[in-house]
Amino acid sequence: MPIDPAIAIGADLGSNEFAWETSDVQLYHLALGAGLDDLSYLDDVAPQVLPTFATVAATFHATEAPRVSFPGVEIDLARIVHGSQEIVVHQPIPPSGKATTSTRIAEVWDKGKAAVIVQESTTVDTDGNPLWSARSSIFARGEGGFGGERGPSESVALPDREPDFDVTTKTLPQQALLYRMCGDRNPLHSDPAFAKAAGFPAPILHGLCTYGIVCKTVVGAALDADAARVKGFRAKFAGVVYPGESLRCRIWRDGSQLLVAVTVPERDDAPALADVVVTLA
Ligand SMILES: CCCCCCC[C@@H](O)CC(=O)SCCNC(=O)CCNC(=O)[C@H](O)C(C)(C)COP(=O)(O)OP(=O)(O)OC[C@H]1O[C@@H](n2cnc3c(N)ncnc32)[C@H](O)[C@@H]1OP(=O)(O)O
Question: CATH for 5-280?
Fold first, then answer.
């Protein structure tokens, strides 16, 4: 059975010790498109670190495609897409360091035509101080119908007024090929034959690449280019993005948070990210 919720829900996926260097942080920022306009992300000594580095730090040096194989879960990689991502940083991420991430399966939802598997993780430094927490889901197409619960159905309403910022960032045709150097070697992003077999006309951009680009765009447009002002960032991957397309971010101030709608202007503003909430430090 590909999914057995009785085994999967609550399963401890163990701990992973890892280290990162300033050059990893620089490469991550380059893979999100940082350049001469964003030199603070590329400094050799003390680059500022986007909080979204939390999503790649533990697996930065991976060179194998990920496997969707956990207690109670065995799914073909071609069937899954990243569904959602949330991070909360408990202190600014240092440009180099050592840490341990512990992960568990928090929830498994049965959407009928698909399954949604939610993981939660906490990351602490070598003294046990919390660095960041994360929650993410994978959306497994064709893997529903195992008799589980459907789970919550929530969405974030956007203000009924013009956005405070409206910024469009162009991605590169080779964006996913650059981004996979940060550890996610899923061939869905690099191999046209694999992408076609998975039901896409061409390789798609990593969800976490879009997520990082959007965070960088929001920091640049609305937060005086100060990445330390982001405390939390959550988003749902609402539609695929193809490398080379643009990401339009409409940003609304909303008290102690920012709300963002992310669309692809080349395809009539098709949604890319939805339910985007940036919590301010
Ligand atoms: C260990 C290995 C880990 C690997 C991690 C990931 C590795 C990466 O390399 C993979 C990637 O980066 S893939 C790229 C990023 N992701 C995407 O591009 C997905 C974009 N989204 C889509 O295509 C559709 O929204 C789609 C397909 C997600 C959903 O569209 P539809 O099928 O039309 O669904 P819909 O009818 O709208 O909704 C059905 C129910 O599902 C819920 N739902 C929808 N989108 C969701 C999403 N993104 N995440 C979680 N749940 C989602 C809906 O709420 C609905 O449930 P309900 O009726 O109960 O509300």
Answer: 3.10.129.10
